[in-house]
Amino acid sequence: MGNPFCPGYASEPFAGLVLDAPGAEVFNPKHFRTEWGPVFHRGRLDGTARVLVLGQDPAEHEAISRRILVGEAGQRVQGLLAKVGLTTSYVMVNTYLYSVYGQGSGNKHAKDPDIARYRNRWLDALLVDSPVTAVVTLGTLASTAYGLWALTQPATAATLHHAALKHPTFPESASHAGDTTLKAATAALHADWNAHLTALAEHVHAEAETQLEPYAGQWRPGDRVEIPAQDLPAGAPDWWRSLDTWADRTGADANSKRATITVTVPKRARTWLEV
Length: 275
Ligand code: URA
Fold this sequence. Notes:
Low-confidence stretches: none
Bound molecules: uracil
Mean pLDDT: 97
Helix content: 25-40%
Radius of gyration: 18 Å
Strand order of the largest sheet: 1-3-2-4-5
Order of helices and strands: HEEHHEHHEHHEHHEHE
Number of helices: 10
Largest sheet: 5 strands, mixed
Structural class: alpha/beta
Number of strands: 7
Shape: globular
Distance between the termini: 19 Å
Strand content: 5-15%
């Protein structure tokens, strides 16, 4: 038996949006890894989404699986959605179609009008006259992007609950930048997400029981949730959506690292060893 799968972008307006995706003429390859292609979304495009998640930019797992928020950040978000009773009725897009390259590159393009124009077409398609009731933005770039869209659609924006959350990998980025420790930044992320949980739950139509138990300040089993099969393209192996890390940038220097994503079948998916 095969898995359910994401049917992709065959219907309008998404087919047209994919055809119109800007490339290196808009996303400067000095600042974006355009060579890995645009990664558009994850979740429902059939009008059944009730929450929109606006992330930042795709990373390694997303470049391979061709869906956004599939790796560590995505599993953390999937856990957050589960807490407010959402298992499949969401849709996710990123602030940027391509992975950000280099220090500060994301900030440089935070208000780029060409990037915003294209992104706003996706947000219009997903939010205007739609049953979405809440928007979750991940990090300051996503919050800024959402604010730019809201200025163009004030009537729709006024009907939506906006939960402006810290980015799910804030602990790693802040501690890597030397601003704080991983432990303190994880506690700060959890405090931030806890502060939004109740209001978010009040503004979404839960499909499953809510589990509003707050985050504990350190990750616990169950805080990360597997990506549902119907979010990935047909034929995606199960381990692409598992909690294992299976993709990494590797290389001896910056150029080889930019050119290389190493994909490794996780130990527990090495089924050939069992036959
Ligand atoms: N992957 C994404 O697609 N978006 C993020 O914001 C982070 C990781």
